[in-house]
Amino acid sequence: MSTLKNTINLGIQIVPKSKTLDTYALVDKAIEVIQKSGVTYEVTPFETVMEGPQDELMAIALKAQEAVLEAGAEEVLVYYRIHAKNGQNVTMEEKTAKFK
């Protein structure tokens, strides 16, 4: 059974490299793409976690990477973490609700 249409959590950490540009400003470009996408997300100090169908989240992640390069980064390192269940949805709420 494919998990591509199930709701998953995808953590993305984008690490831009630039000799002349502020790296935080470059990361902000990636976060802007995620914010405009309409998916549920949470920005943390180390990564941004998104929630939705895997194929949609991977497309957003690629756009975020491209936005950083278009903003002037010379190169970019991208790290992903995915939590998916076979035939079931994964939500951030189920993992964090007890801490609110």
UniProtKB/TrEMBL annotation:
SUPFAM superfamilies: MTH1187/YkoF-like. InterPro entries: MTH1187/YkoF-like, Thiamine_BP, UPF0045_domain. GO terms for cellular component: cytosol. Residues 12-99 form the Thiamine-binding protein domain. Gene3D superfamilies: 3.30.70.930. It comes from the Bacteria. Belongs to the UPF0045 family. This is Uncharacterized conserved protein YqgV, UPF0045/DUF77 family. It comes from Aquiflexum balticum DSM 16537. The lineage of its organism: Bacteria, Pseudomonadati, Bacteroidota, Cytophagia, Cytophagales.
